[in-house]
């Protein structure tokens, strides 16, 4: 039973990684071609902003791919992997929390 669950989990992680690779590629093309280049040619700041938002999604997808690679390699999360994930999440929240502190001042 446990071997079947591990095999199923491995297959689910493999599918998820393929989907995420597609998503990252799509967002990168969308951000560069549609957002930045078309926005610059049209003189549209909102289209350029859309492209920049797509690059933020690419960064998010890269973080997810990293997390999925750790998940695929390890059947049970070790304390060091959990610690790294917690540190990465804290680091990702830093710009948002510093913005909140600036607004309070």
In short:
With 105 residues, the protein is an all-alpha fold. It is built from three helices and no strands.
Which features characterize this protein?
105 residues; mainly alpha; 2 domains; 3 helices; 0% strand
Give an overview of the whole structure.
This protein has 2 domains: about 1-75; about 75-105. The N and C termini lie far apart (about 55 Å). It is flat and about 55 Å long. It is an all-alpha fold and about 100 residues long. About 90% of the residues lie in helices and about 0% in strands. Helix 1 (about 1-40) runs antiparallel to helix 2. It has helices at about 1-40, 45-75, 80-105.
Mean pLDDT: 78
Helix-residue proportion: over 70%
Sequence of secondary-structure elements: HHH
What composes the largest sheet? Answer: none
Q: Outline, from the CA principal axes?
A: flat
Q: Low-confidence runs (pLDDT<50, min 5 residues)?
A: none
Instruction: Provide the β-strand percentage band.
Output: under 5%
Number of domains: 2
Structure summary, number of beta strands: 0
Radius of gyration: 18 Å
């Amino acid at each position: 039973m446990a071997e079947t669950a591990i095999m199923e989990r491995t297959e689910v992680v493999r599918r998820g990684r393929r989907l995420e690779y597609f998503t990252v590629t799509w967002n990168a093309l969308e951000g560069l071609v549609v957002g930045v280049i078309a926005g610059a040619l049209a003189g549209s700041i909102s289209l350029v902003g859309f492209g920049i938002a797509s690059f933020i999604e690419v960064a998010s997808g890269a973080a997810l791919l990293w997390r999925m690679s750790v998940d695929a390699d390890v059947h049970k999360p070790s304390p060091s992997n959990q610690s790294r994930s917690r540190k990465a999440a804290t680091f990702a929240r830093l710009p948002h929390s510093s913005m909140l502190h600036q607004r309070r001042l």
